[in-house]
Every structure is written in C-alpha cells, then in structure tokens.
Amino acid sequence: MNTIEQRRRRYLDAMGIQVWELRSRAPTPDAPRQAAPDPAPGPQGLAVDWPVLEQTVLQCRLCDLHEGRTQAVFGVGDRAADWLIIGEAPGAEEDRRGEPFVGRAGQLLNAMLKAVGLRREQVYIANIVKCRPPNNRDPRPAEAASCRQYLMRQVELIRPSLILAVGRIAAHNLLGTDSSLGKLRGRIHHFGPQQIPLVVTYHPAYLLRSPDQKAKAWSDLLLARSVVQGEHGL
C-alpha cells in the first residue's frame, strides 16, 4: 500500500469507516477552475461582487439574529469551487472564529472530504443563515428567508458543479420540503434556475452522535463525487 493510500485509510478511520474499496480514485485536476464572470442578478436582485456581498453580510441587520452574534459567518473556501457545501447555521465556535464548520464537526467534515480526494481549501463552505441562533436552536423560517438572498448570490458567483446539503435544515431550506433526511438521501436533486445537482447527507455533528450512520454518509459522498466526475450525464 503506497503512502497516499495509507493516508486515505487514516481519513476513513477518522470517519469511523473500517474498510473501503473504491473502483477508482478521484483525478487530480491539472489546474484550478477559473472564476466565471458574474452572472445576471438572481430572483432577489442582489447583483454585487464578492467584496460588496461580504461586507453586506457582515453588517446585516435584517433579522434579530444579529443582536446576539459575535460576528456574521460569511463562508470560506475556493470561490470557483466545483463543490459547494451548505450547512444550517454557525455554532458557538463558528461565531467566535468567523468560519463555518470548525471544532469537532469541522474536523470530521475535513476527514470526509479528504476521503474523496478533496482538501477543505478546494471546496466552498457556507450556511443557510450567517449568524448563530441563540442556544444553537434551529434557524426560524423568517431568519432563513432574510439570509436567502446572500446564499443565492454566493451560488450565482461560485457556479458549482454540485451542492452538498449537510443536515436536515439545509436540505429542507434548499429543496423546499419537509421530507425526512432518510427519504432525501441517496438520489440527485436539483437546485435553482440553473438546476445545479444537489446531494443530501448527514451533518457531521449528527454523525459524531450517531457513528453507525457514517457508512451512509460515505455512500452520499461517493454519489456526490460521481456527479462531479460526470458519471450521471447531467
């Protein structure tokens, strides 16, 4: 077993997966994707570039969540990424550091990405809402609606090949459904006017509490990777 394969096995171990045999390894891109030109305004009409969008989010007071935040959590990663990962909301550590998916859940997410040949820096990570809800409660519909224009503009600017919806709240808000996560997993959905392929999986925080579900999350990651690699003719 070569060094790269040994490293991949360690990442799978971190996910709680014992043995995985993949048919093929994810190819290493020859060069990073170039950022696409700004598209036309979306349905919310928020046609701004990255610097203006980020400053708008950091100063946003559209809902009451701004009252309890340390800072808004805009998003992080490659702004021309193939993979856009969307979670629900910042937690306490995210609110403190200003970055999504840090702490134990973030470490597990990093391991999940590495298991399919990706570094955190190669994807873009964002949330349904940009400010931490009090006591880590679920974001309310009005709060998600206030933030939706920001997320939509991020999607428009990134133009990802795939959206990975991480957790129930993200899946429900992106797909406009209240179906259970179990029913939403295992198939390819589509998001927005561009019909971007979307795959649903479990939130890393849930996987930390329910490690027996990690095998299903691995299956979701393989499905997502197959979409990006063009194996479904989308």
Overall shape: globular
- In percent, how much strand structure appears in the residues? 5-15%
Low-confidence stretches: 19-44
Give Rg in angstroms. Answer: 17 Å
Strand runs, count:
6
Question: Mind explaining what this structure looks like?
Answer:
Helix 1 packs across helix 4. By secondary structure, this protein is of the alpha/beta class. It has a six-stranded mixed β-sheet with strand order 1-3-2-4-6-5, sandwiched between helices. About 11% of the residues have low confidence. It has nine helices and six strands, in the order ααββααβαβααββαα.
Mind sketching the topology for me?
Elements (H helix, E strand, L loop, with lengths): L2 H13 L34 H9 L17 E2 L5 E5 L4 H6 L5 H13 L8 E4 L13 H18 L3 E5 L1 H8 L5 H4 L4 E3 L4 E6 L2 H6 L4 H15 L6
Parallel strand pairs: 2-3, 2-4, 4-6
Antiparallel strand pairs: 1-3, 5-6
